[in-house]
Design brief:
With 70 residues, the chain is mainly alpha-helical. The protein has one domain. Helix content is 84%, strand content 0%. It has three helices and no strands. Helix 2 packs antiparallel against helix 3. It is elongated and about 50 Å long.
Length: 70
Amino acid sequence: MKNILKQFRYLILLLPLGLFIALVDSEVLNGFLGTNELADHYRFLGVLILGVCVLLFVVLQIDKNSDSSN
């Protein structure tokens, strides 16, 4: 079981990332930033920065775990 998780760990990472991108894309296409209000733009940037930070944390944890298992 652990070998299967090791083989597909990047797929497990890509699925939530794809869902996040789809959610952000649908919000933008529905006119989320069409109001030209500054608060909407800051919220959008904040969500993007949060998403990148979470992704960076997960990648660093995977890298740390792969270094310690060798």
